[in-house]
């Protein structure tokens, strides 16, 4: 009888030991170390986030889009590593895949995947990153920051992004007939429409502007027929850049042009005044400058 009791006790003890690690594995990760003080820098890692594709395929994102931008940034003194984001199954030329899907994948989910990638790669080590985003990509970045601020369970607890520059991002809802008409099952088109649940989620707890989190610069063009300049500037931010219609910069050229001088106006929160420059920097150069300065521009 005594021997039988001892066997039962040993078995119970073993089961208890087996349970403890499983419970411990569900504990939240410790908070990351604090980030270094903010400072002007051309050495931070930079994430490049592309926009929407009606074919759910970006092709080669490096040679086809971001390589010329990054090489120009290096000529302008940038030394931080490039991280080209992709989320469509057929996309190539990226070193930071956050999803393999179609335009049926919703933007909040893509925001959570981007946030976790930045957290796992840099935030948990106390390192800031910068982000340059084109078109819908800027909404993915907003979703990443919003989810963290809202403490949504699908997002990490912290996110160290110092600067964000968006080019032609529909921060307020533009007409999207060019890309979205006839696309059934496109959750991404639905998310970008006026009054969508996704847009309401972004607006319920605004996370942007110069006084919270990343320092945002919104870049738009009066010649952009896909995302009007008013939509590209449709969010509270610390800095705005407007390319005049006479510059003739369309939606794709916001990220494809890497040289030249173009008529523009710009606004910064610290002096609340618009300035005009008839020989202003190309949009990608303006975005690079926005990523360099942590506060001023």
Write a compact overview of the structure shown.
With 297 residues, this protein is α/β, with parallel strands linked by helices. It has helices at residues 2-25, 61-75, 107-121, 137-149, 177-180, 187-192, 197-204, 229-232, 253-256, 283-292, and strands at residues 46-49, 82-88, 96-101, 129-134, 161-167, 215-221, 239-243, 261-268, 273-281.
Task: Provide keyphrases for this structure.
297 residues; alpha/beta; Rossmann fold; nine-stranded mixed sheet; 9 strands; 35% helix; AB_hydrolase_fold; DUF676 domain-containing protein; DUF676_lipase-like
Describe this protein's structure:
By secondary structure, the chain is of the alpha/beta class. The chain has one domain (43-292): Rossmann fold (3-Layer(aba) Sandwich), CATH 3.40.50. The protein is 35% helix and 20% strand. The chain contains ten helices and nine strands. It has a nine-stranded mixed beta sheet with strand order 3-2-1-4-5-6-7-8-9, with helices on both faces. Strand 6, helix 8 and strand 7 (239-243) form a beta-alpha-beta unit. Helix 3 (107-121) packs across helix 4 (137-149). It is globular, with a radius of gyration of 22 Å. Mean pLDDT is 88; it is low at 1-25.
